[in-house]
Amino acid sequence: MSVLLAVQFIIEEVYNHPNISAVVSVSSLLLWLSIRRPYDIPPNPWIIFPIIGHRPLLRGDPIVTLRKLRKELGEVFSIYVDAQLIIVVNGYAAIKEAFFTRGDEFHWRPNTRICDLFHFGVICNSGKEWREQRKVTEAGLEHVKPNSSTFIHREASHLITALRAGEAKAEDVFVLFHSAVFNALTSVLVSRRMDYKDVRLEKAVERFKENLELFSDSKYPNFFPFQKFLMGDFFDVKFLRINMTEIHQKIINPIFEEHRTEYNDEKVVDFLDVYLKEMKAQKGVEKTTVEERSCQAVLYDLLWHGTVTTGATLYWAIVFLLRNPSVQDKLKEQIDEVLTKTEATSEETNGSQKLKPELPVFFKAFICEVQRCANICPISMAHAVAKEKFLKGYRIPGDAVILPNLDSLMMDEDVWGDPQEFKPDRFTNSDGKLSIPHEFKPFFLGTRCCPASFLAESVVSVFLAFILYNFDILPEVQVSLPSSQRKKGLIPYPPNFKCKFVPRRKSQ
Ligand code: HEM
């Protein structure tokens, strides 16, 4: 009754006061404009807030929210983050259709402020520019593939020496692991490595980590494009740019100049040589993007993304080894059989061990399970379409951000049964052979899949095999194991932890 009276009072007030009536009309129009949604886009949660859209739903762990929305809304759904429409593609069939079968249509990157910063390289490029950069990147990676394992073995030996120097004291190996990965990549790609104590290396790892955090928070500058005209650095975009410039100036540019000075057509050794050769071949070609600025940007892309992804995978692997001691024991037994000691003076390994070509099945299964559970690219990278398309009957507007939800593959209960459990055996079949369901796609699929998956796999398996052969990995305190909770961010790391690398008796 009192509600009815209140409504009646408001109607009378509005009717009798034209000013109030105008304010109410304009506010209603604005409210309607800010929450209206086209009828033909993929379904979205009915509750929507003016200006911020569905943002409140993403509080907590957004990945868990996406899992819930998939159950409620289906394989292709949408959400509004502020005014930005985001379309989430879930499940193997829909992801394969969009990004593999129709990979050319869905290969674009969204036109966001953050992508602007990176757009000369390969990761954030689209269209003709992306095709050119992708082609030369693939050619360069193909060229270094045959010799890459020699460099990775060499870096693994350096890593073992550094871990031994820790004298089995509890330590956080985050920076050391990322430095070793960075070195493995630079050895393969540009024939250089740095001492682990070199400040340039420490700074590079620190800047990469900072940039990842800034990139993960990039939602604000992305969706408020006018911020570039503001003074100050409200959204840390300028900080991100300064960090990138530092890595370019201290590491990438000097290496580029050295290579350019020493370049010899007859001696094309590494990735950078291949790029320089292609630059030479394309000299004079109108509007080519295969030039100095793009080459440096591609190197930045490879080193940044390659270091943080591979470093995160290794860091997670140690968490799972500490939390599953019986798995660690089984792996050590198997690795002892395939790692052979070679002469310490051996040119090939510059160190002490070498892996036989074939790794044990359980070891491979362990690495798959680490990648599945660590799930370090849960929403891969943002995609877009150049102009309006249709997917599964829904309209996909040209200005939408499209997310391939890899978490919907790696953590699907229908595929894995108990996806939250860490069980390497799920990747072996009854014949004891490796069996990989097609939903396992840590490196994505289709036209924009990771072009360096072979490098990442090789670094992860060689480093882990060397570590398991040489050390017992023990928790800092026996009763407290590191957490497997995932931190927020584009690449979800575990919380930092310390552990001990105690030399194994047999390997002394
Ligand atoms: C465990 C380690 C790694 C994982 C899980 C991983 C995962 C991925 C994923 C999921 C994408 C696809 C993004 C998309 O949706 O477009 C991607 C792209 C890419 N990855 Fe990796 N990656 C890893 C290591 C590396 C390494 C070591 C390198 C290079 C040294 C590398 C270079 C690239 C590049 C250049 C792209 C962009 C391709 C393009 O846009 O065309 N990745 N990676």
UniProtKB/TrEMBL annotation:
Q: Which residues form a coiled coil?
A: none
Could you tell me the membrane topology recorded for this protein? Peripheral membrane protein
Show the InterPro entries listed in the entry.
Cyt_P450 (IPR001128), Cyt_P450_E_grp-I (IPR002401), Cyt_P450_sf (IPR036396), Cytochrome_P450_fam2 (IPR050182)
Gene Ontology CC, one term = endoplasmic reticulum membrane
Instruction: Indicate which residues the UniProt annotation says bind heme.
Output: 450
Ranges annotated as spanning the membrane: none
Q: Please, which domain of life does this record's source organism belong to? A: Eukaryota
For this entry, list what GO says about its biological process.
organic acid metabolic process; xenobiotic metabolic process
Provide the protein's localization: Endoplasmic reticulum membrane; Microsome membrane
Q: Which GO terms describe its molecular function?
A: heme binding; iron ion binding; oxidoreductase activity, acting on paired donors, with incorporation or reduction of molecular oxygen, reduced flavin or flavoprotein as one donor, and incorporation of one atom of oxygen; steroid hydroxylase activity
Q: Which UniProt keywords apply?
A: Endoplasmic reticulum, Heme, Iron, Membrane, Metal-binding, Microsome, Monooxygenase, Oxidoreductase
Q: Which cofactor does it need?
A: heme
- Say which family it is in: Belongs to the cytochrome P450 family.
Task: Specify the protein name.
Answer: Cytochrome P450 2C30
Organism phylogeny: Eukaryota, Metazoa, Spiralia, Lophotrochozoa, Mollusca
